[in-house]
Automatic annotation (TrEMBL):
Cited InterPro entries: VCA0040-like
Assigned keywords, A-Z: Membrane, Transmembrane, Transmembrane helix
Top-rank lineage group of the source organism: Bacteria
Protein's UniProt name: DUF368 domain-containing protein
Chain ranges passing through the membrane: 58-76, 88-107, 119-140, 147-172, 192-215, 222-239, 245-268
Organism name: Leuconostoc gelidum subsp. gelidum
């Protein structure tokens, strides 16, 4: 392998490590990071037209995928500790990062105009989606942690790549899959990695074309639905039962407020980076 080839391979590997942030940090979108690093359009074209130049694109993205796996394993250790020790405080920081992306999502939703029906979709998603998600455990019981739930988790994370600005990790938090996912990543558990990879690949292959069609024909409606989901899931991760406020003090509240503000700034900054590099 020539020196230039080694350099390009390592560059893509470290890009994958960086994109791993979008897989496991609520408020950070893998699609935004892929856009910033110049990989988003090629990746979407590859997934939407997988038989075209398959061999060339497959080997191009191999180091990105390996870097993503390494990044996930490295980041999972400190994240698991923080969520175990300071969960409510850290969740407020994550919520701030998600809130910081809302202005960008709001602008994107009006990119091709906005109609009254779009607001109805947003309001309906917030009200009915919120009621459904909040009462989901009472309706269906606790979500089991098994092969099929990991398929779902992988699919949700893949949606965060297909739709820049969407961070599915807050949904994983509410579904109770985030903590066991981090533990599985930390121990490099193949029973977690393999079904998530399968779910992610299936979603990328199936939904790349679908999402392209929906955004081309129903751009505003799709983004108003996404806005509603983001607003609802953000609220749900900072209220019980996801956030545990036992032992929460004035100091905890001040730190949470500070981290929320930092999160808002970080999310807003990331959104502007996406617009710059999109």
């Amino acid at each position: 392998m020539k020196n230039d080839s080694i350099k390009n391979w390592l560059t893509r590997f470290f890009k994958g490590v960086f994109i791993a942030l979008g897989f496991i940090l609520p408020g950070v979108s893998g699609g935004v990071l892929a856009a910033i690093l110049g990989l988003y359009e090629r990746m979407l074209n590859f997934m939407a037209n997988i038989r075209q130049n398959f061999k060339r694109d497959f080997w191009y993205f191999v180091p990105v995928g390996l870097g993503g796996i390494v990044g996930i394993i490295l980041l999972s250790n400190p994240l698991e500790y923080l969520l175990t020790t300071y969960k409510a405080i850290i969740l407020w920081g994550f919520a701030g990062a998600i809130v910081g992306t809302l202005p960008s999502l709001f602008r994107e939703s009006a990119k091709e105009g906005r109609q009254r029906s779009d607001w109805y979709i947003f309001a309906g998603t917030v009200v009915f989606g919120g009621l459904f998600l909040y009462n989901m455990t009472a309706i269906f019981g606790e979500m089991p942690v098994n092969f099929f739930s990991w398929l779902l988790a992988g699919g949700l994370i893949a949606l965060g790549i297909i739709v820049p600005g969407l961070s599915p990790s807050n949904l994983l938090l509410y579904l109770g899959l985030f903590d066991p996912m981090i533990k599985g990543f930390k121990s490099a558990d193949l029973d977690v990695f393999i079904p998530m990879a399968i779910g992610g690949l299936i979603t990328l292959v199936l939904f790349s074309k679908i999402m392209h069609y929906l955004l081309q024909n129903f751009h505003a409606k799709v983004y108003h639905f996404i806005l509603g989901i983001v607003v609802v899931s953000t609220l749900l991760i900072v209220i019980p039962p996801v956030a545990d406020y036992s032992g929460f003090t004035i100091v905890s509240m001040l730190i949470s407020t500070f981290l929320f503000a930092i999160g808002v700034w970080l999310g807003y900054w990331m959104s502007h980076l996406e617009q710059k590099y999109k």
